[in-house]
Design brief:
Elements lengths: L3 H14 L15 H22 L3 H22 L7 H13 L24 H20 L6 H26 L10 H10 L9 H7 L48 E6 L2 E6 L6 H6 L12 H9 L6 E4 L3 H17 L1
Antiparallel strand pairs: 1-2, 2-3
Helix pairs in contact: 1-3, 2-3, 3-4, 3-11, 5-6, 6-7
The protein binds 2-acetamido-2-deoxy-beta-D-glucopyranose (3 copies).
Protein name: Extracellular membrane protein CFEM domain-containing protein
Keywords: Signal
Organism: Penicillium daleae
């Protein structure tokens, strides 16, 4: 659970960076381009209306932002499910976890399985999961007062922060050694990690991490690939590749969650019906995504027959306002608890 100070920091961060966001997924690569355009336009219009009503109230704007990202995820599930493992969807979910304090796992299609069809060259979902874990470990680390001397405690808190930053960075360097670290959010991580409580100057963490073992402070191995907590002076060389999708846009031949599925955030439950394949341009040419290699366009055609013939739809047991209110009420409880 986030502390009150954390939420205040988050709110400040939100005020600085939260704005209307758009997905970077282009409709032309979607299973049903026109449904995706309609869906994302609707989300943007509703979010604009929601943020207007907030009249600058930051908690209110955060609530609108949560609803906005959930809306975009529904658009992908509905009409762009073939991009569910793409870098662009990974980035959308990463932003959701950064900007929406009530975001909880699980969210659809995330993290992508390893070697997913048309998956991102770097599994950003796994990195974001590691970063979320590092933040939780930091919170329990600073509240674990198993030492009593104030000097010891102050040093330990610094160590907790260094371990947090190290855990996030180590997960990035180990999970995607070939990817440019800033493309995995390394630079944002330096900034966001320091917002959670004490300011951590990563450059000075070397000596701190020499005297404290992160494992002994309650930190789990940073990634499934390694239990190394890197220090400023022993980080592996930076990768050099930008993010790219590894397969053709038609590589995923059927909606990964089946044609109808439900998912929930706070008290809201969505039921999403995936659209069958309606992208004739992509089916005809079999054009791949950027940096694509792999299977040809025929896969998409096969996928179309597997899905139901009903059109795309997102149904919500509550009204749209309820989505935002649900996020808002959780935020308010967190602030005033
Ligand atoms: C879309 O791309 C822009 C420019 O690269 C980036 O600033 C923004 O964060 C991206 N949005 C999402 C949701 O990925
Ligand atoms: C490696 O990437 C990090 C994070 O973006 C950056 O701060 C650092 O300057 C890079 N190192 C080199 C040698 O380019
Ligand atoms: C608290 O700290 C002690 C020693 O610093 C460590 O052994 C223990 O695992 C920590 N407890 C939790 C819950 O992290």
């Amino acid at each position: 659970m986030l502390s009150k100070t954390t939420l205040v920091s988050l709110t400040a961060l939100g005020a600085a960076s939260l704005a209307l966001a758009q997905t970077n997924i282009t409709a032309s690569v979607c299973a049903d381009p026109s449904a995706f355009t309609t869906c994302s336009t609707k989300v943007l219009t509703e979010s604009t209306g929601c943020m207007d009503i907030c009249a600058g109230n930051k908690i209110c704007v955060l609530g609108c932002g949560c609803a906005m990202y959930q809306g975009y995820m529904n658009c992908v599930a509905e009409s762009c499910w073939n991009q569910a493992y793409s870098c662009e969807y990974d980035e959308l979910v990463a932003e959701y976890f950064i900007e929406c304090p009530v975001a909880t796992q699980p969210v659809p299609f995330w993290p992508a399985p390893d070697n997913a069809p048309s998956g991102c060259s770097c599994n950003l979902g796994k990195i974001v999961q590691s970063v979320i874990k590092a933040q939780k470990e930091y919170n329990s680390c600073i509240t674990n007062s198993s030492t009593t001397s104030p000097i010891e405690l102050a040093n330990k808190d610094t160590a907790c922060g260094c371990c947090e930053v190290s855990a996030g960075l180590s997960a990035m360097y180990e999970t995607c050694p070939d990817t440019i670290p800033s493309d995995m959010g390394a630079d944002l991580w330096f900034k966001t990690a320091t917002l959670y409580g004490t300011v951590i100057d990563w450059g000075t963490c070397g000596s701190v991490l020499d005297s404290y073992k992160c494992q002994n402070l309650g930190f789990a191995p940073p990634s499934s690939k390694s239990n190394t907590f890197y220090k400023p002076n022993n980080l592996p060389p930076n990768g050099t590749q930008t993010l790219y999708n590894t397969g053709a846009v038609t590589a995923l031949t059927a909606p990964p969650s089946g044609s109808v599925f439900s998912w929930s955030q706070s008290t809201v439950t969505y039921t999403v019906t995936a659209s069958p394949w309606k992208n004739n341009d992509v089916k005809a040419t079999g054009t791949g995504a950027s940096g694509a290699s792999g299977s040809s366009g025929t896969a998409g055609a096969a996928g179309a027959t597997k899905t139901s013939s009903t059109g795309a739809a997102v149904s919500l047991k509550q009204s749209n306002a309820a989505v935002w209110l649900s996020a808002l009420s959780v935020l308010i409880k967190m602030t005033f608890a």
